[in-house]
Amino acid sequence: MLPLKDDLKARTRPVVVYAILTANILVYLYEISLGAELNDFVRQFGVVPYLLFHPTGIESYMRLFSSMFIHADSIMHILGNMLFLWIFADNVEDRIGHVRFILFYFGCGIAAALLQSVIDPGSKIPMIGASGAVSGVLGAYILLFPKARVLALIPLGFFLRLSYLPSFIFLGIWFLYQFLFGVSSLGARGGVAYFAHIGGFITGLLLALPFRKRRKTVDYNIY
After folding, report:
1. pTM to 2 decimals?
2. 120 close to 190: Cβ distance less than 8 angstroms
3. Region 55-73 average pLDDT
4. Which domains does the chain have, with CATH numbers?
5. Most buried residue, 37, 114, 210, 217, by most Cβ within 10 Å?
6. Average pLDDT, integer, range 74-88
């Protein structure tokens, strides 16, 4: 399923989301310009699980941040991440606030990379992409806006159908796919870091707990 839009309008301008989108696009354009040197760029700034547990210096940990802005040379990687960020992140930023959203986004991305690294601590394959942080946004969204509707493009055999789905159904199915593919990918080398998606999603859900709207209570006297 592919999300196209949701039916919630943010009350504030999502300036942080705009900045993250712009930064990712600019880095991707720079990647394209590197040509054959792209692999060296990925090896230098991508997260390497082995280096997190056998650090060579502070740069081993700084990769946790830099890797969030690097994408594979396939344009579908960055398009998918930025689409999900564009649709779901504005309302999350609106709810938790601009400054807190910055901390939230990077916190989810770091937690995502750490979980994937724990799953395969000996891997020397660099991990790149904003998927972990974006997954955190999805985790927050499903908690904060479970009844929001998402317009999705749904493949049905040879046909495509447009349909509005409650966010808890759309994102619940998305998470189920990540879990199933993650379990099936255990022991594999390279490919999609599904446990980063899972870790980011769960972290986003937990970090969003304080921002749930509480029911208003009515004062009363007992007599």
Report:
1. 0.89
2. no
3. 92
4. 2-209 (1.20.1540.10)
5. 114
6. 93
